[in-house]
Amino acid sequence: MGLVIYFDGSYVQEEAAKVSVFDHGLLYGDGVFEGIRAYHGRVFKLKEHIDRLYESARTIQLKIELTHEEMTEVVLETLRKNDLRDGYIRLVVTRGKGDLGLDPRKCPNSLVFCIAAGIRLYPEELYEKGLEVVTVATRRNVPEAMNPRVKSLNYLNNIMAKIEATMTNSPEAIMLNNEGYVAEATGDNIFIVKNGELITPPPFVGILEGITRNSVMELAEKRGIKVSEKVFTRHDIYIADECFFTGTAAEVIPVVKVDGRAIGDGQPGEMTRNLIADFRELTKLDGPPIY
Ligand code: PMP
User: Fold this and answer.
1) Which of 46, 101, 22 is nearest to 215 (CA)?
2) What are phi and psi for residue 122, nearest 5 degrees?
3) What is a GO molecular function of this protein (predicted)?
4) Number of domain units in the chain
5) CB 237 within 8 A of CB 192
6) pLDDT-derived band of residue 124, with 50, 70 and 90 as boundaries?
7) Residue range 226-246: average pLDDT?
8) What average pLDDT does range 242-254 have in this prediction?
9) What is the DSSP letter of 151?
10) Nearest to 233 by CA among 194, 186, 267, 187
């Protein structure tokens, strides 16, 4: 049996969840979304994800008919309908049906749908061994054109970078901004460790302000680690002691090689391993219960 999907006000079988060819989410990537995780019967940082969804929608002037509370219930109920206590949730709001022009005023009703499924991005052994990745030529969108802080349905910038990475058999790409400062990976934020300090790019560089990123910064501060948001370059990654990515799907994952250079001693570092453990503990405690 397939999944039960929340689609435009009702819960339907996945075969019945069909989007119109006139939906501007499809025609133009006009919409916003969230990727959310449920762990041990709780939805991790659900409030933060719902808030970010509405903030993204506000910037693109997309009206969502549901309230925050109703949207929260959609996520919880979709999990219940699929009998999931652990899983990945994709919450999407598109501009809805319009004509073939760009004008969003021709789209009277936005469309909300929610998919909950069991997904795991990387095999467990990569959390112990770490990822080997590359930096790519495709630059992260400049905030002045389309701000990466908006989690929009237009992911072509990230997809172009992902294509470059996969051509070299690299599982991820590190993207730089237009000035050559490190921004983020295609679906994850990046951290480096240097002399005991944890460093990650500030949002103005042009990144999605990841919810996992913020959790990890808090966890590090609780450990008494100095955490800094500051710009850095590829060179700083090469000479870092440790490097890792954070994201809802990837969680906290070590990066041990970048552009063929071993980071530190080429093994996941101690701070990275501690933060992976802290993060896994946090996922047991945080967020509203599904039942
Ligand atoms: N950057 C990008 C471009 C992403 O798509 C994601 C995944 N949502 C992230 C960073 C990580 O954000 P989060 O921790 O909120 O999943």
Assistant:
1) 46
2) -110, 145
3) branched-chain-amino-acid transaminase activity
4) 2
5) yes
6) confident
7) 98
8) 97
9) -
10) 194
- Quote the mean pLDDT of the chain: 97
Q: Could you tell which of 52, 155, 189 is best to mutate to test the pocket of ligand 1, judged by most ligand atoms within 8 Å of the CB?
A: 189
| 257 is a domain residue | yes
Q: Which domain holds residue 162?
A: 124-285
Q: Is the pLDDT of residue 272 over 90?
A: yes
55 neighbors 47 (Cβ within 8 angstroms): no
* Protein residue whose Cα sits closest to atom 3 of ligand 1: 187
pTM for this entry:
0.96
Distance in Å, CA 100 to ligand 1 centroid: 30
| Co-location of 181 and 128 in the same domain | yes
Q: Are 212 and 247 in contact (CB under 8 A)?
A: yes
CA–CA separation, 37 vs 45, rounded Å?
Answer: 8
Pocket lining for ligand 1, CB < 6 angstroms: 35, 158, 184, 187-189, 208, 210-213, 246-248
Sign of the CA dihedral with 26 first, then 29, 32, and 34 last: positive
Tell me: do 161 and 72 sit in the same domain.
Answer: no
Active-site residue list: 151
CB atoms near residue 16 (< 10 Å): 12
Written as one letter, the residue type at 142 is V
Question: Whose CA is closest to atom 10 on ligand 1?
Answer: 188
291 inside domain: no
Cβ-contact 191, 199 below 8 angstroms: yes
Query: What is the chain's length?
Result: 291
In a domain, 179, yes or no: yes
Tokens of 25: 């989410």
> Given a cut of 80, is residue 135 above it in pLDDT?
yes
Same domain, 104 and 142: no
The span from the CA of 36 to the CA of 49, in Å, is 7
